[in-house]
Amino acid sequence: MSNLSIIFICLGLALALLLAYAATRPDEFRVERRLRIAAPADKVWPLVSELRAFNRWNPYERKDPLIKSAYSGAAAGVGSRYDWDSKEVGSGSLEIVNQQPGRVVQMKLDFVKPFEAHNQAEFALLPTPDGATEVRWTMNGPANFASKLMGVFINMDKMVGRDFEAGLQNLRQLAEGRPA
Fold first, then answer.
1. Which of 30, 65, 148, 164 can pair with 140 through a Cys bridge, CB separation 3.0 to 4.6 Å?
2. Which domains does the chain have, with CATH numbers?
């Protein structure tokens, strides 16, 4: 057997092991970040429940000043929708599908580019005894085989989590009345 044959067999085995490992990864993903904001929930609520206000602090909106965006549906609350198209952050839509006023906003998050994905996002406001608000931002969705394979090399929680952390800091500045 030639050296080239041995190399191809080893590469084939390594690829098979990589694919087998990727297949064992979870079928769903979840990213979550929390931040305490020194403002009452009623001051934070409009900044997470109205998509135009959300985009004042949205870290993805800030990544591309040339982003093309459109709002449709209700002005606020359930049925409110935001569509975007950007060379920097891809294209997709975000729609409020459920809310518990002052407490929870649930959104359907659909990506078209750079890859198709259908996820859920949620903002939960948890008042603290001292009058502040803990904001929890989560995103979860299915993990198909391609995303499982990508997850072997890229830590989705760290990558998306950094953006969530930046966004929550932006939100904190707005809610606490500090310059952004």
1. 30
2. 3-175 (3.30.530.20)
